[in-house]
Amino acid sequence: MHMHILLVHAYPHALSPGGPMNRRFLFLLGSSRAGGNTELLARRAAEQLPGDVEQEWISLAEHPLPDFADLRHDTDHVRPTDGAAALLLDATLAATDVVIASPLYWYSVSASTKRYLDHWAGWLRTPGLDFKAAMAGRTLWGVTALAHREQEVADPLIGTLRNSAAYMGMRFGGVLLGNGSKPGQVLADTGALARAKTFFAQDAPLARFPYEPA
Ligand SMILES: Cc1cc2nc3c(=O)[nH]c(=O)nc-3n(C[C@H](O)[C@H](O)[C@H](O)COP(=O)(O)O)c2cc1C
Q1: Candidate of 105, 143, 177 to mutate for ligand 1, largest count of ligand atoms within 8 Å of Cβ
Q2: Whose CA is nearest to atom 19 of ligand 1?
Q3: Which of 57, 69, 169, 214 has minimal CB crowding within 10 Å?
Q4: 163: CATH
């Protein structure tokens, strides 16, 4: 069985630009196919990360989560100990930066991505985890490919990620958008490739809901 989890262990530098805590990026691939445009674009952006930033890549299609069952007001959620939920929870808690790399499906995130986010609701209610406090101050990023040329049709996806980050007290680095339908087409979107070069170098302010003053 392939694990398809790539751990890039970097050589620790004495000082990293972001401060003493080494950054660790978790890339969650939400496409229903491997090697698609979203993944290609995410890899272009990730290539620019400094060598001392760790990267972990997990395909949500290869590690399918069960549908989320809402036990929040019924019994306690328990911390998952095996399977995709345990893998994804541990990887999430280990990350300073979570990158949702989901194609645009029906103007929002893919089902596997949405299911992963739904599981956050259970982790928020899992005794002993303190998931919200753990995630506060960390950074959420998005990468998406879409067939539509007018990028504003991705606003629901952007809103989902930004509002989720705001709810969690997380920082939000925005969403890197690329155009493409067939795998590989995003590599012809020169604007997207240019934005990928500096995407993760951007400042990621604390996320705010649209009604909150900037
Ligand atoms: C289920 C499904 C829903 C889609 N919905 C949209 C959409 O709402 N808007 C759009 O522009 N493209 C849509 N597309 C096209 C994909 O976003 C496009 O093919 C993209 O390149 C897929 O990303 P991937 O190559 O990373 O899998 C959809 C594709 C699928 C399979």
Answers
A1: 105
A2: 181
A3: 214
A4: 3.40.50.360
Alpha carbons 66 and 76: distance in angstroms, whole number: 17
Q: What was the pLDDT predicted at 214?
A: 76
| pLDDT value for 76 | 79
Name all residues whose Cβ lies below 6 A of ligand 1: 31, 33, 36-39, 103-107, 145-148, 153, 180-181, 183
Report mean pLDDT in 10-residue bins for the chain, 214 residues.
Answer: 42 41 94 98 98 98 96 85 96 98 98 98 94 98 98 98 98 98 98 98 97 89
* Domain assignment of residue 148, yes or no: yes
Task: Tell how far the Cα of 179 is from the centroid of ligand 1, in angstroms.
Answer: 10
Describe the strand order of the beta sheet including 6-8 as a list of residue ranges. Answer: 6-8, 54-59, 24-29, 97-101, 139-146, 171-179
C-alpha of residue 109 to centroid of ligand 1, in Å: 10
The DSSP 8-state label assigned to residue 78 in this structure reads -
| pTM, to two decimals | 0.91
Closest CA to 29 of 57, 2, 53: 57
Q: Report yes or no on 213 lying in a domain.
A: no
pLDDT at 1: 38
Task: Report the distance separating Cα 94 and Cα 7, nearest Å.
Answer: 12
Quote the ligand 1 centre to 108 CA distance (angstroms).
Answer: 10
Any domain includes 133: yes
